Structures are given as structure tokens and as C-alpha cells.
Amino acid sequence: MPPAIPRATYRLQLSADFDFAKAADIIPYLQALGITHLYASPFMKARHGSTHGYDIVDHTRLNPELGGEKGFERLSRALRAHDLGLILDFVPNHVGVHFADNPRWLDVLEWGETSPYAVSFDIDWEQLPYRARGGVLIPILGSAYGEALEAGEIELRYDPDEGSFSCWYFEHRLPIAPERYGEILRVIVKHAEAENSETGRRMLELGSRYRGLRHPNRKEAPAFKAELREIEGSAEIIARGLSAYGAGPGRTAQTLALHHLLERQHYKLGHWRLASSDINYRRFFDINTLAGLRVEDAGTFEAIHRLVKRLIAEGKLQGIRLDHIDGLRDPAQYCQRLRRLIREAQGQHTAPFYVVIEKILGGGEQLPAFSGVHGTTGYEWMNAITQVLIEVKGLRSLDEIWRQISNTPPRLDPVLKQAKRRVLETLLTSEFIVLSRLLARIANGHYSTRDYSADSLRQALELYILHFPVYRTYITVPGPTAHDRALIEQTIELARADWFAADDGIFDFLRDTITMDLLKPGRPAHSALRVRRFALKLQQFTGPVMAKSLEDTGFYRYHRLLALNEVGGNPASNGLSIPAFHAMMSARNDQWPHGMTATATHDTKRGEDARARLVALTEIADEWAAIVARWKVLNAPHLVITGEMRAPSVTAEYMLYQSLLGAWPVSGHDPTFLERFQVYALKAAREGKQETSWLNPNAAYEAGLRDFIARILDLSISGEFLSALDAVAQRLALLGALNSLSQLSLKATLPGVPDFYQGTELWDFSLVDPDNRRPVDFAAREKLLAIIERPDWERLAETWRSGEIKFAWTRHLLKLRNELADVFTQGDYQPLDVTGRDRDHVIAFARRRGRDAAIAVAAKSFAPFTQGGRTWPRAEQFEGSIDLRGLTLEGAHARGGEISLSSLFVHFPAAVLRARSEAPAKRIRQRASA
Question: What is the pLDDT of residue 928?
């Protein structure tokens, strides 16, 4: 049986090319590596061809493209045979919509608000502008609605197997409301000149008989469709008569007929660009094809968790990773319901069930104590490791370089604020409009607040969002916690200070609406339903705003040090001292000892070893300014300049140099590198939303960017630059490799569950997705596992470029972690004092449980020991000792309660050793069991 709390997880990205069967094949390898739990990407039925699985269209079915039930059963058998658990990346927040594959969404389009599934989707039915009846905007058209209609791209079709009518726009199905079937039949029969035929008369009689269809009646509709299907010859008449709706060039009457039919549906077709201003269903961020789910609805919760409950009951699922929990209306309520569901599924065999959440914490933000949750997926700890490895003094030099390159102070706040404005004006305008209108309706609901104009309220709300410092609050119907109330108050005061019009209490009104104090006894009567809807909906909005503004905009504008531009990170961080790091980990051990510790995920902006390389820039920061200056001169002839356009921009060029160093292949030529890097650069430019964007691509700039990269990476014309680039990359590669080994050592020994992203047992210099989802050569890794069963560390150090040293060290750490499972899962955390000249270069701590213990030591800032990244460090270069403080090392040369750094760093500057404790360690408190 796998342990209830994982000792190590391994993330696999499943797809049609790497399905359940292929996952099953590598289970023996994962077990031999030391993994205890397979952590799988979503495997419910997703959109055809999905490479990530987050566009689920049916939560109740296993994905047939991964092998369906049969393939999953094979994977389950392999996991059981090797005592591995399974953790599912579960998506409760959204589903894939549009196209023709989500039956619940199609039902909503067919029946509107009367659909039993309408409650599952967060749709503002009355928000469509310039439309008499309610409906949902469907922004799928590649051109203006009128152009698509007149071009004949929208087509009415009949499905003779279902007896149903739908409009189709290429692969998108748009069901016709049954209340319109009688009208359609009359038009079709007449157009087919079949009124006098027996079949035509029966069709007309059918259309007139079902009067109930004028007011949607789900009980009558199936019988209507069945009877239509069974009328002999009806399909042939319909096929002839459908041309009455055959819109196209020169077919004015037919175009109008189809238009009038479409206007009387429960949806409104529109150009895809309308999504930024008119969309009226909650999306996952700004992705039109992912619609938010109202999982707070009990029926919806039950439906999407049905399969999960079965898998838990069958003992085939041992953990869940909850995707984008901040998108839910009430995450606390959701976690309570999930915990009850897990207990019901387990029945009498109740055992700990591992649950972690994808949650990005802002600076100083604490994770709420959600029921049954063991912690986060580890973004915050990934960034803590990066920050402690940084050479803090080097950041000051990088600050000055960024000041000169960007011609702005090295401050993130103005960049983030500007990015938020851009997002509110473009990507998320629709959602912001919905909130602004709702706020105005609340104000207009009482004479004491009706003078706050809609425009003033919109501006005040915008300022609040611009200054809101984290992803969201967690207000529930009873009101905010003391922490959330303080956060709202602080944000309101910042917004008020940024307001230059007359206040007249507008910010007090906004604050009282957000906190729902407006509903307290003795206050003017406002609509409780609207106030609660606004306050709870605002929380679901600030998260996407922050994500799109910081991660997907700010990270691609602020390039002071790209190693810090990571999911859950702070690009303006000043690093983390070793004492502060120890304090953070001690607190973690007390509060969230079983959350994940990640150093790479499918969401990270670059591979973990590319990031470790870029950390080393802080060690050569004084040289970096001259290096960049020289490269800019060498590459000036390759810039593409047209009028005022410069491709790449000055700041983008600086970003490209850092990105090249992080990903540069230093152990051989990579024929795919140029294309991969061009794809990355294009994505980075569009995400930055300055010279170009996803919404409005600048073809000239993008072509110039591709050309610039092609020229500077062309050996025939940029030999001098490439030689200089390679020389710096080789130095950073060595420093980065040492950083990576320290990063790995910390991840595997700190409080928490170390998570390994697929393929990162070897060096990982990948770029942002989709580059980090490339196939992994598991066959090569399986062969390597046998070779390094008894590692020759001296040889591995000499051949460090191959990545085998990282692989062997990963295997060694996981072996030790399994042998000392209680120490690392339940043990305490004890910082160890380092003395001597190099004390500031060493992070040392002990993990203890009872008499058993382990000592972990990792070095940092390696430039002084490597001639600036030119030679592998030798043990005797390190001067200093570690105070063992009541610990005895097994088989080590410790004297007088100390051990020297030189005796620890024999092969490379990291060590994890068994030890014995002279006094029993206390047992840690388990937060998630509360």
C-alpha cells in the first residue's frame, strides 16, 4: 500500500501520445526511482486532441483518447502491483464549451434558462446589450456576424437520427430551440413545395399540434423529435427545404430568414473579439472556450464529482490536486463538501486522503485553513528556494542595469498597475462591465446612494482592483474575516488616495458593498441578493485580473532578473537571507508540513535548471553590464527598424539575452533550438502586450523579432556574438548546475512533499509551455537507472554536463527519503549553525523524529569556489564547520560536535547524511487533519 502522505510525487502530462498504457509502462521505473505517488494531469474526457486535459467536456467519463476505462484499469493494476498511489489533477472550476462535444452546454444553448444544466454555468442572462430577450453570447465567429452570415458560413442542418435542428459554424454546433421547430417545418415544407404531399401534411400537422413548444416543454420535445424522425420521407423534404435558410452571397431573403431564426435563440452569435467587452458567462481567465462552473450548486457538485467518488471508493485514487481553487465562489464550502464526499466514498475504511490546492500566495499572505487540505502545490516554496540561492549583493547591480535599459526605476508596482489597466481595458472588460453594472444597480436601489453615477462607480471600482495586492479574499455570506476586512480597508484607502474627483462617500459605499456591511441592521435597505452576488463575484474576478496582469503581462515586461519571474514569485524580490529562510521553513513545518514542494510544473515560465542558471547572473552581475553592452553593439546590425518600430524593443532584447543563457545547449548542438526559441519569443512578446498582443498581433514587429533571432543565432553572420554567448553560457552552466544540485537537495529534504515534473531527473532547460510538455525519453532514463545504481560520484562530477549527476543525486535523495520516511514526513526542522569564513555560503538543517535524524547541507553562491564558473569546486576550498547540536553522524568524521564543510563536500557542495539524535524530537502537528 502507498503511504497516506506521499514521500515523493511525479507529475505526468497525459495525452493521446502518452496515454494510460504508456503511463503504466513506466510505473516500475518510477518505483525504482523512489517515487511513491503518480501525480497525473486531468484525465476526465477532454476536448478532442487536448494536450493538457484542462478543457474537460464531461467530468463523468474517463478520457477515451487516453484509453478510457480499459486503459485506466491497466494503469491501476500497475500502480497496485508496485505500491504507488495516484493523485489526480482535478478541475472543479470550469469545462470546455462551444464546438459540439459538451452535452450539458449544448442543452443550455437549446433550452436557455429552463435547461436543468443552466444553474451549472455562471451566466448573466439579462446582460446582453441591444437585445430584447435574454441569452448567452457565443463569441466564436472569425469575422463580423454579418460577414459570416452573408458568406454562408453559418448553416442550418437537420440530424435525421435525432430529429433535431442545429446551426453549425464550422465545427461549432448551435442547437435550435424546440419552440421554433413548428415555424421551421412550415417554412421548409412550403419551400420544398410539399404542402400537398402526405409527408408534408403530416409534418405541418405535427408542427401545429405541439403548441406547448412555444413555451419550452422538455417533456413534449423528445416525442416531437421522435415523431418527426419517424415520418417517412421527412428527411428528404427537409433536405430540399433547408435552402430556405441557406444564407450566402446574393441570397438576401434566405440570409434574413436565418438571421431572424438565430435572433430568436437562447444565444447570440458574435465575433470572437466581442468576448472582451460583451461576454456574459464567467470564463477561466480570458479563455472563451472554458466556461466557469457554479460548483457551489449542490447538483453541479454531485455531477462533476461522481467519477472521482467512484475511483476513491474503488481504492484507485489516493489524492487530489485541486486546480484553480481561487476561481470558485466559496472555496471553504467546496473543501468541506469534498471532504464529506471522500469520507462517504471511503466508507468504513476511512484513511487519510491527500489533498493539495493550486493557490498562489501574495507577499506575506497566509494560506486559509481549508478543511481537509494538506497545503498548496508548492509555488511559494519553489520561489523561496530560488530567493535563498540568489547572491543578494548582485541584485543591486542588476537593478542599475535594468534602470538604464528600461529608463524606469526598478520597481514592479507601476508595471503591475499599468498591466492591470491594460487587462481591464481589453481581456477582462466583459467581466468588469458586469460587475460595474451590478454595483450601479445596487447604488440605484436606495435614495441615499442613487446619486453615485455609474461612471463614478466604475472608476472607483477600477481603482480598488488596481490597488488590490493579492489574488482574492475569502468572504462568505456571513461576512469577511478580520484579515479580509483589514485587506479591503487598506485597499480602499489606497484607491481613495488615487482618486481626484469629489469623494462624497463613494469609497465608503464601495467598501460597505464589498464587505456586505451594507446589509447590516439599521442600514438603508439594499437588495441583499445583489449585494451578496457582487461581493462574492468580485472575489472570483480579482484572481484572474492578478493572474493575467502579473504572470501573463508583468512577467513579460519587467526583466530585471528572469529567475524571479516565476509563478507565485515576486520579480522585485530582494532575495532571502539564510536566517529568514530557516524561519520560513520552521513555520511551514508547524503549519503545512505536507504540502508539495515543486521546482518545476507545467505552469512554470522556464525549466528548473534554466532558472538555476539565471540565479547565477547575480554572481557575475558586475561583469553582466559590460557583457550586455558588447552584445548590443554586436547585434545592432541585426535589428529590424522600420520608422519608429524597433524589433525587438530595447527591453525585449535584454529579456532575450537572459532567456538565451538560461536555455542555451552547452553539451551539443540542438537542431530544434532556433524554432523553439522563436516560438518562445513570440509568446513572450504577445503576453507583454506592448509591441504586439494576442488580441491585436503586430505582424511587422513579430516578423522582425523572428528575423532578429534567426540572424543572431546564425553562425555564418553572428560568429563573434555566438562565441561570446557560448563562453558566458558555459560559465553560467557550471554555476547553474551547482545551484540545481542545491535546489534539488533542498526540495527533497525540506518540510513538504517533493514533486518531480516529468523528465526533470536530468537537466531541464525547457522554455514556457508548450515547450515544457515535449515528450520525455523514459527508455533512456530506465537504462540510466541501472547504470547509476552504485554511482561513481567523481566520474559524475567530471561529466556533469550530461545531467547524470543530477539523476544519480535524485535517486540517492529519494532512496534516503524512503528509508527515513518518518523523519522527512513527520519530523521536526532544526536549523544548524555554520561557522567559519564561508558560513554565508551554506544552508544547513536537520530533520528529526525520535532518535532518527538526517542532516541536509547545501551550498550557494559558487563563483568564489569555481573561478567565476570556470572550474568544478574542490572540497578543500570550503572553510567552515557545522555545529551538529546533539546529533551524531553515522560513519562521518565529526569531531567535538562539529563537522567541516570540506569533509562534507567531497564530490560536490551538497550533502544529506543519516544521523542519530541524542534526545528524541517532538512530533509535528498535522494541520490538515483538523
Answer: 45
DSSP string, 111-161: HGGGSTTGGGB-B-TT--TT-SS--EEEEEESS-HHHHHHTT-EEEEEETT
Task: Please give the C-alpha separations between residue 907 and each of 129, 785, 793, in angstroms, as whole numbers.
Answer: 69, 20, 6
281: its cell numbers: 458567462
SS (H, E, C) 554-567: HHHCCCCCHHHCCC
CA distance 699 to 696: 9
Cell digits of residue 164: 433535431
Contacts by residues 407-414 (CB-CB < 8 Å, ≥ 24 positions apart): 410/560, 410/572, 411/572, 412/554, 412/558, 412/570, 412/571, 412/572, 413/572
Q: Report the phi/psi class of residue 197: left, alpha or beta, with left for phi > 0 and alpha for psi in -120 to 50.
A: beta
CB 806 within 8 A of CB 814: no
Residue 148's φ and ψ, nearest 5 degrees, are: -65, -40
Cis amide leading into 909 (omega within 30): no
What per-residue confidence (pLDDT) applies to 799? 96
Q: Are 119 and 297 a contacting pair, CB within 8 Å?
A: yes
What is the helix (H) or strand (E) element at residue 914, kind and residue range? strand 910-921
Q: Decide: 24 and 75 in contact? Cβ < 8 Å.
A: yes
Residues of the chain with pLDDT under 50: 924, 926-930
Residues 6+ apart with CB under 8 A from 252: none
Q: How far is CA 848 from CA 33, 301, 754, 916, 921, in A?
A: 24, 41, 18, 8, 6
Residue 744 C-alpha cell reads as 534539488
Which stretches of 19-131 are assigned E, i.e. beta strand?
A: 37-40, 44-46, 56-62, 85-90, 94-96
* Euclidean distance between CA atoms 77 and 134, whole angstroms: 50
Residue with cell 479574499: 473
- Cα separation, 405 vs 107, in Å, equals 54
Residue 21 burial (C-beta neighbours within 10 Å; 0-12, 13-18, 19+)? middle
Set of cell numbers at residue 155: 448553416
* Cα-based distances in Å from 291 to 54, 135, 334, 827: 11, 15, 18, 43
Res 921: pLDDT: 62
Burial 420-442 (b: 16+ CB within 10 A, else e): bebbbebbbbbbbbbbbebbbeb
Distance CA 600, CA 710 (A): 28
Identify the pLDDT of residue 131: 73
- Report the distance separating Cα 150 and Cα 259, nearest Å: 10
Q: Closest Cα partner for 930 from 428, 666, 592, 546?
A: 592
Q: Please give the domain boundaries of the chain with CATH numbers for all domains.
A: 9-93+295-376 (3.20.20.80), 103-284 (3.30.1590.10), 413-556 (no CATH)
Under a CB-based contact definition with an 8 Å cutoff, are residues 506 and 495 in contact? no
CA distance 30 to 873: 32
Q: How many CB atoms lie within 10 A of CB 458?
A: 17
pLDDT of residue 437: 92
